[in-house]
């Protein structure tokens, strides 16, 4: 490894800045649950969930909420459970404040005591969502929170809901197409798929819902769930991936991705290859590429199928190549004269670039970084030291540049208050009253900038950018890298 390679010290620096005192450890809990309720669970399940945080306009800095049955509803509870996981498994990294003395033992313990109740309040609606068979996103909905609830507490209800969700997802599998249907319909200014007869729609995002099938399949010894996940992963290889010429320094065959494939439900033949959220049908939408990296890495970890591992590596190679070849305008000079930002990916690798303000997607970067960390572990286990080192290097570079460019710097501090009944609770206060409040952890996400939608969303905080940001830190700790 060269002098620019990540080290354990750099991993520690990431955890200290991103996962120590302040926002990641406390802000999501206090901002969204309310400091007045931190001492106990209030038992009231939410009817809507945080999704985006605008960076401008009248609601700048405040979460915009979506209905409780929207596909992103699982990521905020998942973020809370990431914090709970950190407090239980890695207490030395929970509310670590760099010895600045701002977090007392008492306030830390009060926060820990309240976390599980807060997590379960936010996760309660997810149990009912597990029964949904009208969508493929049940993995995104239930796994981030309910898997951790089971693993940290042994709650059988959560494991049973995971099984229910896996069966719901499996019900969308078509044996003739050898794939799981992602969407029953898709209508925008260009597309008009309104029935299953008009399209069997499969998107690259589906790769990250397969983990649900493998997890439930192995827990309950249901080989059919495992087989469906494995078959779908192989189908996506042939329907969504494009082999591209390798760039200099590539270690693996490179692949780019289509976002959407419309299959014949009777034969599995590809009828169309399209995009819904990318710039164009033939472009590479960066978050779609990231879903592929993470999904294939997860699938390999369950199956140990070398084809799935090489696929994940090829997708990651292309993601890296496109960041490296991005125009110079993606780099931003910092106060010390160094440059950052190259490894916060553009929202679409082939879209026109505004040289004054390149449009990025921090969520794509953090999803890809998680996938690359999984690849580091998988390749280390197979003895591929060179490949493992490469993906670790870029995973940390993505995280570092995301912190440099996207991390919302306002922080909270914890204080102890005693009510009239002598009951103590931890209360959150702004650490700097002059700093503009921003309720998400990361800025510069792009939910959807495709030109065929009347409403386009860019340059905002995004709940799943935050989730994968938090998960990345926990993965570093699990791997002993910080």
TrEMBL record:
Task: Give me the ranges of the annotated region Disordered.
Answer: 26-58
Does this entry carry the keyword Hydrolase?
yes
One example of the protein's molecular function in GO is: chondroitin hydrolase activity
* One annotated GO biological process: polysaccharide catabolic process
Keywords tagged on the record: Glycosidase, Hydrolase
Q: Which family does it belong to?
A: Belongs to the glycosyl hydrolase 88 family.
The name under which this protein is listed is: Six-hairpin glycosidase
Its organism's taxonomic lineage begins at: Eukaryota, Fungi, Dikarya, Ascomycota, Pezizomycotina
């Amino acid at each position: 490894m060269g002098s620019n390679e990540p080290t354990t010290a750099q991993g520690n620096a990431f955890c200290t800045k991103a996962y120590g005192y302040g926002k990641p450890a406390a802000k999501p809990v206090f901002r969204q649950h309310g400091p007045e309720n931190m001492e106990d669970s209030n038992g009231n399940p939410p009817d809507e969930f945080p999704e985006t945080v605008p960076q401008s306009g009248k609601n700048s800095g405040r979460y915009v909420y979506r209905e409780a049955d929207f596909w992103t509803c699982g990521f905020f509870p998942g973020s809370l459970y990431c914090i709970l996981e950190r407090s239980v498994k890695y207490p030395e990294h929970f509310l670590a404040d760099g010895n600045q003395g701002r977090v007392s033992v008492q306030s830390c313990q009060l926060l820990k005591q309240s976390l599980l109740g807060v997590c379960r309040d936010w996760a309660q609606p997810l149990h009912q969502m597990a029964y949904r068979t009208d969508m493929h996103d049940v993995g995104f909905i239930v796994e981030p929170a309910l898997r951790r609830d089971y693993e940290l507490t042994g709650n059988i209800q959560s494991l049973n809901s995971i099984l229910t969700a896996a069966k719901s997802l499996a019900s969308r599998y078509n044996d003739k197409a050898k794939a799981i249907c992602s969407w029953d319909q898709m209508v925008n200014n260009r597309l008009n798929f309104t029935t299953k007869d008009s399209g069997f729609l499969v998107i690259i995002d589906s790769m990250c819902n397969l983990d649900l099938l493998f997890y439930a399949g192995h827990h309950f010894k249901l080989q059919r769930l495992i087989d469906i996940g494995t078959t779908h992963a192989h189908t996506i290889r042939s329907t969504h991936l494009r082999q591209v010429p390798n760039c200099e320094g590539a270690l693996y065959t490179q692949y780019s991705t289509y976002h959407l494939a419309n299959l014949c439900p009777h034969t599995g033949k590809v009828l169309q290859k399209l995009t819904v959220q990318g710039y164009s049908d033939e472009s590479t939408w960066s978050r779609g590429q990231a879903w592929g990296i993470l999904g294939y890495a997860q699938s390999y970890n369950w199956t140990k199928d070398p084809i799935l591992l090489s696929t994940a590596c090829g997708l990651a190679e292309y993601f890296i190549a496109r960041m490296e070849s991005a125009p110079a305008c993606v780099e931003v000079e910092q106060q010390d004269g160094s440059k950052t930002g190259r490894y916060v990916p553009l929202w679409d690798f082939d879209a026109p670039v505004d040289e004054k303000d390149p449009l990025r997607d921090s969520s794509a970067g953090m999803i890809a970084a998680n996938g690359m960390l999984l690849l580091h572990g998988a390749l280390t286990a197979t003895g591929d030291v060179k490949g493992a080192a490469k993906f670790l290097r870029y995973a940390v570079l993505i995280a570092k540049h995301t912190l440099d460019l996207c991390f919302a710097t306002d922080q909270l501090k914890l204080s102890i208050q005693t009510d009239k009944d002598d009951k103590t609770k931890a209360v959150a206060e702004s650490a700097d009253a002059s700093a503009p409040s921003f309720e998400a952890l990361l800025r510069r996400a792009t939910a959807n900038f495709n030109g065929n939608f009347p409403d386009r969303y860019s340059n905002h905080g995004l709940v799943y950018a935050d989730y994968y940001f938090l998960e990345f830190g926990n993965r570093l700790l699990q791997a002993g890298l910080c």
